[in-house]
Amino acid sequence: MATRVLQRAATGLKQTKNGFRAHGQVSVIARSLAAHREDSWFKSLFVRKVDPRKDAHATLLSKKEDNNLYKIQFHNVKPECLDAYNTLCEDVLPSIHTDPEYPCELVGTWNTWYGEQDQAVHLWRYRGGYPALTEVMNKLRQNKRFMDYRTERGKMLLSRRNQLLLEFSFWNEPVPRPGPNIYELRSYQLRPGTMIEWGNYWARAIEIRQQNQEAVGGFFSQIGSLYTVHHLWAYKDLQSRDDTRNAAWQREGWDEVVYYTVPLIQHMESRIMIPMKSSPLK
Predict the structure, then answer these.
(1) Which of 153, 246, 249, 268 is the most buried (most CB within 10 A)?
(2) What does the alpha-carbon distance between residue 193 and residue 280 come to, in Å, rounded to a whole number?
(3) Do 31 and 164 share a domain, yes or no?
(4) Where is the NIPSNAP domain (predicted)?
């Protein structure tokens, strides 16, 4: 390609009255082509080669010893129905949580304080993975009390959505904790293909953010909105949240984690949530 361009330029030289200018044109073209070749070679040094993998990121990043599956539910409630909705949930959901016939646990249930208003968030854990989820769903269809709850709940909602999640292997498993606390759910929509990279950085970062025991759980989606990550944090109040987050910047390595993970994010959202009375996470 470069040779043909130079040949055409040389031919143009014979047809030009001003030989000096034509020589200059050939020199400019030659320098341009040389620079292009050098630039292409330089860029090739930074092409990221992806090693072939035979494991899904779910297998590489999730905990293997407990086979837990999580479901997170977002319910947008009619403003005038929020109190009645909370009462209904507090009456029915704990009965499923405590019944040994259902292989599931209510990890936490909240109302959003700051973020999307008049919203409830429920987090369930299914010990045994997808088979446990299927068992619970089949049993609930035969549970008249729960089906009545669903019918009544439907009258109070504007919309609802859910996701099935796995927990990152390097995060704590969420366990009941005393209160009072506020909770922050930070949700990240990642660029497709970056989940492994995110996990590699946060496997180190979580050590920095555990010093005040604020880390509750970390999850990534399997069904629903994909390449979504949820980090759940607990704080005594908004001021302690601010102090804790500012203190992280004084610890070695935190700035590097932020620097390298921000480019992986397409969208992020923060919710400050207040536990319902029936929430195991107080």
Answers:
(1) 153
(2) 34
(3) no
(4) 183-280
Domain that residue 252 falls in: 60-275
45 domain residue, yes or no: no
pLDDT digits (tens, 9 = 90+) for 249-265: 998 889 999 999 999 99
* pTM of the shown model: 0.79
CB 67 within 8 A of CB 149: no
Instruction: Supply 272's token pair.
Output: 């400050």
Residue 185 shares a structural domain with residue 115? yes
User: What rounded mean pLDDT belongs to the chain?
Assistant: 83
H or E element in which residue 204 lies: helix 195-208
* 96 plus 185 within the same structural domain: yes
In a domain, 89, yes or no: yes
Amino acid at 68: N
Question: 97 and 7 in one domain?
Answer: no
Segment 192-212, tens digit of pLDDT:
999 999 999 999 899 888 877
Look at residue 281 and tell me if it is in a domain. no
pLDDT given at position 56: 58
Give residue 156's pLDDT band: very low, low, confident or very high (50, 70, 90): very high
Higher pLDDT, 217 or 35: 217
Q: Domains in the chain: how many in total?
A: 2
Quickly list DSSP for 31-79.
Answer: HHHHHHHHHHHHHHTTPPPPPP-SS-HHHHHB-SSS-EEEEEEEEEE-G
pLDDT at 67: 83
Summarize the confidence of residues 121-147 as an average pLDDT.
97
Q: CA 114 to CA 252: how far, in whole Å?
A: 30
* Cα gap 29→35, rounded to integer Å: 10
Q: Hey, what are 211's tokens?
A: 């010093």
Task: Tell me if 187 is assigned to some domain.
Answer: yes
Residues 26 and 107 in one domain: no
Residues 17 and 110 in one domain: no
